[in-house]
Amino acid sequence: MPRLSFSAGPFFRKFLISTIRGYLGFTLRTTRWTFSIDPEARKFLTCEDGRTAVVAFWHEVLPLTPALWWWAEPQNPSMRLHVLISRNRDGRLIADIVGKWRIWSIAGSSDTRGKNKGGAAALRSLRSRLRHGGIVAITPDGPRGPRREAQQGATALAALVKKPIIPVGATCRGLRLNSWDKMILPLPFGRGHFVCGAPLTLSRDKELQAEHSADRLLAEAITQVMAEAEQPWVDHPGRQKEKIWLTPLSLQPSRVWHWVATGLAPALPFLLRWRQVRGKELPDRVREKMGFASRARPAGPLIWFHAASVGELVSILPLVQRCLEKKTNVTVLLTTGTVTAARLLQHRLTHPQLVHQFVPLDVPRWARRFLANWQPQAVVFTESELWPNLIGLCHQQNIPVALVNGRMSERSFKNWRRFRPVARRMLERFAWIAARSDADAQHFQQLGARSLAITGDLKTAAPPLPVDQVALQSVQQQLAGRPVFLAASTHEGEEDALRPVLQILQARFPSLLTIIVPRHPERGAAVSALFGGAPRRAQGQVPARTDSVWVCDTLGELGLFYRLADFAFIGNSLPDVRTGGGGHNPFEPARLGCALATGPRIQNFQEAFAILGESVVTVSTAADLVDWVITMLENPARRKACAEQAQAVATANMALPEQLADKILALLPA
């Protein structure tokens, strides 16, 4: 008969964990709970205003304590609970049972009789959790007793981090097991009672009398609330009392979106193939969009940053750089959604600790595959990247998620307001949100965001766009002092609108050179054809003296072109644009001293243009644009004043990346 020990062991353990978890979940859900909570203790149990504490209860009520977490977590889903559980076999079994309810364990117990039980390492981990906004729970008489006698761990930890201890007592309809702690085994369809006493601030001062030691005071406090829990009919003055049914917090912000994405998954590879044929995906990396990694995960801590496209990428690069400088052992995984952004990253930032991947589509199975491979310790999304399945899975795996440069336009706010429950469940899971502006912060808050951090636009804090000094000097010599007008980041339809403008300008200013930089370099040939085969920089062509247009269809060189021109028009903003418009980042040219004009369709950067105010001119027609260019060429003093005004605004918030980098690094475990 074959031996079954190699397979039966793990199988039986999984069966045992599922059975116990299922039984506990059923009994705790079907129990009618009464909570009697001290008002000050409530503030700590829900991490109100960043408060944290040590929660202490006797080992006998351990099976009941998930109910306390189910009560607390919905009131502040961004908080985390860590429980000190013995690292022996029984302790690991308990940790796996409660782990699915996002009760995270730290392995260890008090070192006694010269034996190293992981107490010192566990103490350091617990201290880190408390200092970074988490709650930790300890059974002072665990894991082996004596029953209801507090050991030194809880009071030592509280004194070390200067945090209070919340004594907790609980009971319910159940059986008392014949174990050292007389553990309560709950029974279904009963009643239960939790009592949370006032926060204790206990000293470890040596002058304390033995009979009044911190450990003894803690034991007395827990025993007292246990006695109160066993008398649910007694009202205690000053305690807030509520009777409720409990259930674990749902991990999915939207079950509908979860199943829609799952149902669409079989068709999405065909969509990716279609995009690949159109040049919007890289053939050798398209599987990254399905969660398959193309590189191995480096060892050590890893922060995942996500920027959808070029604009978001440019805004967070200074932030990424600060994190890499401040924490040299950390790896940054930077994901983008577009090929253009990936190519720009290669030009802008290379670092041995920086890894680029394409972000997986928001399909639950693909997202799980991505997270299982990269195992990030912290996640940072950018601007309006809100993906319910990814955010929910990060929360399920206890990965803190932050949002930087959070953008919630009026239009997006109205759309999300139609799905307010989904928005609330998604936003309340963020550890914190750093909004781009006060208006964005207000929109996030109205939709359910709980923790709002520093407000400020990263686009106003970025360093000037880089430039190759050799290339700059070379082009300046080739242009030989010609006046330069720049049309930057133009989209399809706008070049057609520019043709009559340039004809008028060429007749009045024969030496004027217009540089056109299409947003998508692959359109360079088509743009060149519109202007009679104008020279293209991507082909190594340089404008002759008789050329009035130069198509610069290269990637990552906007810093060069903004330095060549004293005034620039920002594309994707004219009424003629066929992509819907929205504008582009005006701070990039403003930071380099360009006077600016834009079309009226700037909804994606409305706040940025509002900040720049009158230093930016809005042109709605070809005649408006002609008049503006003529004014800039004939009135250098006005051009200089507009440029200086815009530059002062665009460089006013340079400390923001440093502040946000500190907050991001604080999300990492010790």
UniProtKB/TrEMBL annotation:
InterPro entries in alphabetical order: DUF374, Glycos_transf_N, Glycos_transf_N_sf, Kdotransferase
Domain 3-deoxy-D-manno-octulosonic-acid transferase N-terminal as annotated: residue spans: 285-461
Entry keyword Isomerase: no
One GO MF term attached to the UniProt entry: Kdo transferase activity
Domain DUF374: 77-147
UniProt keyword Cytoplasm present: no
One Pfam family from the record: Glycos_transf_N
Pathway: Bacterial outer membrane biogenesis; LPS core biosynthesis
Catalysis: reaction(s): lipid IVA (E. coli) + CMP-3-deoxy-beta-D-manno-octulosonate = alpha-Kdo-(2->6)-lipid IVA (E. coli) + CMP + H(+)
Enzyme Commission (EC) number: 2.4.99.12
Site (Transition state stabilizer) location in chain: 383, 459
GO biological process: lipid A biosynthetic process; lipopolysaccharide core region biosynthetic process
Active site residues according to the UniProt entry: 312 (proton acceptor)
Keywords: Transferase
A GO cellular-component term linked to this record: plasma membrane
Enzyme class, UniProt record, top EC level: transferase
Function: Involved in lipopolysaccharide (LPS) biosynthesis. Catalyzes the transfer of 3-deoxy-D-manno-octulosonate (Kdo) residue(s) from CMP-Kdo to lipid IV(A), the tetraacyldisaccharide-1,4'-bisphosphate precursor of lipid A.
Stated name of the protein: 3-deoxy-D-manno-octulosonic acid transferase
